[in-house]
Amino acid sequence: AVVIQRGDYKVPGYQVSEIALDLRLDPENTEVSARLHFQCTAPAPVSELHLDGESLELLSLQRDGRTLAEHEYRLTDAGLVLLNPPESFVLESRVRIHPAANSTLSGLYHAGGQFLTQCEAEGFRRITYTLDRPDCLARFTVTLHAPQKNCPVLLANGNCMATGDEEDGWHWARWEDPYPKPAYLFAMVAGDLAVIRDQYRTASGRDVMLEIYVAERDTGACAQAMDSLKRAMRWDETVYGREYDLDRYMIVATDSFNMGAMENKGLNIFNAKYVLASPETATDNDYQGIESVIAHEYFHNWTGNRVTLRDWFQLSLKEGLTVFRDQEFSADQNSRGVQRIGDVRRLRAAQFPEDAGPLAHPVRPDAYSEINNFYTATVYEKGAELVRMIHTLLGKAQFRQGMDLYFQRHDGHAVTIEDFIAAMEDANQRDLSGFRRWYSQAGTPILRATGSYDPARHSYNLTLHQETPATPGQPVKEPVPIPVRMALFNTQGQRVLLGGADRERILLMEQTEQSWTFDNLPDPVIPSLLRGFSAPVRLESPLDDDARSFLAGHDDDPFNRWESIQDLAVKALLAAVADASVASLPGALRHAVAATLGDAQIDPAFRAELLSLPSEEYIGEQMPVIAVEAIHHARDSLMCSIGTQFVPEWVGLYHDLAAAYQRDALSIGRRRLRNLALSYLITSDHDGHEEMTLHARQQYAQADNMTDRLAAFQLLVQHRHHDAEDILLDFYRKWHAYPLVIDKWFAIQAAAPRPETLRQVEHLLVHPAFDWRVPNRVRAVLGGFAANPTVFHAADGSGYAFYAEQLCRLDDLNPQTAARLATPLSRWQRYDAPRQQAMGEALKMLAGKPKLSRDLAEVIQRSYP
Ligand code: DPP
Ligand code: ZN
Questions:
Q1: Which residues surround ligand 2, an ion (CB under 5 A)?
Q2: Which ligand lies nearest to the CA atom of residue 269 in the structure?
Q3: Could you tell me the fold of the domain covering 736-865?
Q4: Under CATH, which number does the domain 215-306 receive?
Q5: What is the pLDDT of residues 103-136, one digit of tens each?
Q6: What CATH architecture applies to the domain 4-192?
Q7: Which stretches make up the Peptidase M1 alanyl aminopeptidase C-terminal domain (predicted)?
């Protein structure tokens, strides 16, 4: 396969200033006429101009009104080569494409009765011949023609300029986008859609029409999306001084989408999962997801669209920055501490393992063969952490100055990560040269902290040591600058002064090893390091159990308070795994749990976080070889002991927190805590166990919201309660008309940690509601299965073999999703020898698949070189 290198970037020899598209939409055969204005920008004449084009059937080709002769162009696998083109010219092409047959969901496709597009990263070349690269910005005019009956709604980017009727019941609409944009931001939609409208007045007093397009029966489920959009618009004005720039902002929801959502200029296309919610069908987490994804795509209007990317190696320039912005938005809307815990949990669950395995790559990658494989946790989540560190290092006001300069310099341009860092430096006269290493170096640094109190000198000495493990292609690592936010606590639980007037400091660790001494400390202190998780590193903490237990009760940094309990739990779990025993509840952990259970002052959402055990995946990450079954049993038994030892407290919470459904943050936190109590009680051994199961069944049957219903449903299915079969049927019957709810039904079954799950999943794949063409459904089953440690990683290798077979099947339809779902197999080196062998065989089987996609081929090749 062709490998594209970052170092090979060349400015395009031509620019396209204008693109006029005309599409006659038919599911089987759509005709696309395109008129492109080319202008040479190279100093010397170009002998060959390569236009991108994929799966296009060329019908006609004209240059400046004249049909091109055979010696003037050449068709290739990758597109069309114009030979000796003039300095400036108009190219007119007509091609035929097949939207209904396009199961890749890239380019123009027809699904669920609608025509939709997805052009990021390289989908536009599946619509017409063009320079499909982000540094090529053109003004678009788009005319859509379709039958009025099937497609009453015709949408594209920008403003609708004219509409009209045609013969045979067809109609048309013409859209113009005044903002030049790269082809990856092009979008069009045609279908039978209902619309919800609202208005937004910008800070400068302009009215913007907000529209959400959904199926008629979903119009009642758009309130959260619309409300989140308006809050996001206000937030970007308040925090960054950025207003929306068109008169109309459209969102379209679809069930058939590879990603979460797409920020096409003025016309976002969303996976319905991040638009539709009603209390009966969506959980609190779903509501939260909508808020953050709506905000994310909206924020892209400035960080991504107005300022766009020079090339795809810069992807984190828009994604890392925009994730940082959406995380901060959510933190401002909800509880900042709980938000941070969730963000770090995601980073550790997805990005840390990626960074430690064969798919590790820098936030700014150096090479790719299929760019779709680089929409990764590293580019997104680690990228966001890097922006967060810049924010931490500069300070809030200075960061804003840097952003202002970035927009001022680069509005309307396609730029690089380097340009972003330079703006941050120049706006603040700061030197971030060392910081650039974070973008070029892969791997998660290990930060080892040791500290000691010197009673004679009344001082505390802290030494930090950093080391980044080798990653593929990068055997030797340099130290990176690590901002370590820290405080010292005295034994009364107060933060002490650190030299000057500060009770918290940011230590900037730039060398491999550095020490700091804090004086004037009459009594011993306990350090709270990396507060708020101030850098994406693995901290090896100097704390013993007593100190952790102390911080679990006293640290006023929510993240570190949570982390202290997590560390205690991890330690207990690793001890149980090591001697294959039942996890005991060590004194320090019991103490921390008791104190948290007993403290009704703690915000319930935060209390639920404090009381949740680390996931099996996270525990596995802390081990040299992941002991699949032992981890599962240790975690179960620790849940059981915590449940059993505190039965009255959990029962008390379960009953006290019962309330009629409301949507405010406090009610959400209370539901979370109550359902956590239920999960402890169901997992534990106690006299009232039967009664709790009854409660769970009642909760399932009578809940007035999906959060509670699903929590009970999941517990009953996981624990295979004797009437689980009936409950599964009942759930399906109730919700079969709601695809997003049925996704949950599929996912929960695929994730049940039970020996019969593999057989169950085989049945699910032939269930009438299963559809290989709908990524949400496929991800529910296959993604749920791959996230099921004891079943996917079954010792006999059956999970891997089964999974690889399904990926083969999926790859023929949807390579992007297949490649994404293949990544769990890349972790093979983390398991014992028999599993390594079985995963290796699964990967070899995939590698030998006929017609293997470039997407999947790259993931396999890098996973198993
Ligand atoms: N650019 C999209 C997003 O992350 C993904 N294609 O918002
Ligand atoms: Zn994004």
A1: 319, 322
A2: 1
A3: Zincin-like fold (1.25.50)
A4: 3.30.2010.30
A5: 999 999 999 999 999 999 999 999 999 999 999 9
A6: Sandwich (2.60)
A7: 546-863
